[in-house]
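Please complete every field before forwarding. Incomplete forms are returned to the sender.

SECTION A: IDENTIFIERS
Entry label: holo-271
Bound molecule: zinc ion
Molecule representation: SMILES string

SECTION B: INPUTS
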Amino acid sequence: MIEYALPLSCAAAAAAVSARWNWWRPLRRGLPVLMYHKVGVPPPASKLKKLTVSPEEFRWQMGWLKRHGYTTLLFREMHDILEGRRPSPEKPALVTFDDGYANNAEIAFPIMKELGVKGNIFLVHDTLGKENDWHDPATEARLKMMTWAQVDELKASGVMDFGSHTMTHLNCADAPIEKVRAEMAEAKAKLKERLGFDPVFFAYPYGAGAYLPKVREAAYLAGYRYDFSVRQGIAPWPWKIEMGPLPRLFIRGDDSRFDFHLNMTRGKARF
Ligand SMILES: [Zn+2]
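SECTION C: PREDICTED COMPLEX
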């Protein structure tokens, strides 16, 4: 592993070496799946500042993907590649947002549209057009969630695609399995009806249950074909369902730019 042997201060040189050597290993770098929640400025009292990335850093990170030659995919494009209907780009990446906050549409979307970066949002069906209610109200101000009008606008732009994050942000490890099955199926059916396509991408709220066989089986039986955890790492590419849920790269609000580089190239920034 030549890249590991290089001193960290030689990051730029490492990137240059990787670019030089890419031609003989186009698919071995895996699929980095970036996981975001909120883009904006967190309220001062928030204990969950790590879930909010500033607009400045978000813009720098999206620019980094472009500068380093990544092709960002919509869910539907990833599905087509893995079904053999279109070729894989040399350096694919997937930008994902959990929950469907209004700031995704109001702050992240314009930046991505300007820079030509595509993304994907896991929606919590019952909170669309309302506020989130899954954080501690003592420290976290409630946040506006996207409206259906915003979903429609983003969908029409070709910049964002959508997946499911249950009906109510259900903890799929704690809830009775019947409830888990019901929410997974209902969210898929209702999103399908409103979005006009069949959403087969799913992210487990809190990452809970992703590695419990009965929960993962429930997602499959509900008709999902791509399931995402919050385990840190670069996903295998090409990915197959029997490899387990896709790990992701949690992009934290307090990450440095070097952390971002380490996440993208090593699969984690904090050792
Ligand atoms: Zn969530």
